[in-house]
Amino acid sequence: MEVVEGKGELVSAEEELGNGGIADVGTQADEVGVVYEQYMYYFSGKGAGVGRNFAGDRESRDLMEGNLKPVRVSFEGNIGVGKSTILKLLQSHPRLQEITEILQEPIWEWQNVKGTGLNMLDAFYKDPKRYAYLFQSFVFTTRFLQQNKAASESKADLLLMERSVLTDRCVFVKTSTEQGYFNPLEAAAYDVWYDGVVSTLPNVVPDAFVYLRADPNVCYDRLKARARSEEAGVSLEYLRSLHSKHENWFIENAFKNAGNGNWGGKPQVGYFGTSSKIPAVIQGRPVFVVDCTNTLDFGRPSKEVDRVVEEIVSFLLGPCTSLHQV
């Protein structure tokens, strides 16, 4: 696993994530004390590195006494790339079993809204122009409630999440807006409450990201193979649009535009830049990129799958486990 330390500017992150009302690094550190200062020191890029620990300090004592919140890692990628499958593999990994909690995307809530039998996921795919705003708002709400509760109550060291609320805004809402599914009024309204929630409730912001990257054609074939009824009408064009948003968010913003060079096409760590143009909530946070090509199908056991799983585990037990919060 190759590590690229963060530096330089993230020129388009403000546009991608929004910056309304988000506190800066110094303000956040002042509010929560010494341990969070160390935490922000890591993310500011000044202390970026693998396996950083603060042995002997208050963080270590809190870890032993069980007072720390879990490190939140969001697994990102296109529809059909294999996020659910890799999370199941990690959940059963012997090095992670005792310290990890998995949060699968709450798709069951979208398929059966409040037990009514009403399927919002199906409604969105059948008539996206009519239901996009309602669907994306509901997705954000269910994801936020699930992840905020787990971040507050989980006793695990690592909280592995299938996507995050940032994905909702940076990938799916942006795609819906570009394709005309959101009108300008809906897009503006979404941004208002999205910025407010993300800026005031840090539990919903991941500490690190794992980006599972695959060609949209591969994702399309896997989507068809799993035959989820609601996805029958999902087009390759839609998957290509989602892919481009993921590429801009992670490859462009954590490598090229962050001064880290080009992503090398192999499991590799990059860091979001530390420019003032990027919201403080994700400055310097690590991104581990995995290329999920045709030969890397997490649903089929192979030596390559085993190797990549071990790479991800090393990332989770390296850059991530030193990021505990009080």
TrEMBL record:
Pfam families: dNK. One of its GO terms (cellular component) is cytoplasm. It comes from the Eukaryota. InterPro entries: Deoxyribonucleoside_kinase (IPR050566), DNK_dom (IPR031314), P-loop_NTPase (IPR027417). Residues 74-315 form the Deoxynucleoside kinase domain. GO terms for molecular function: deoxynucleoside kinase activity. Signal peptide: none annotated. PANTHER family: DEOXYNUCLEOSIDE KINASE, DEOXYNUCLEOSIDE KINASE DOMAIN-CONTAINING PROTEIN. This is Deoxynucleoside kinase domain-containing protein. It comes from Ceratodon purpureus.
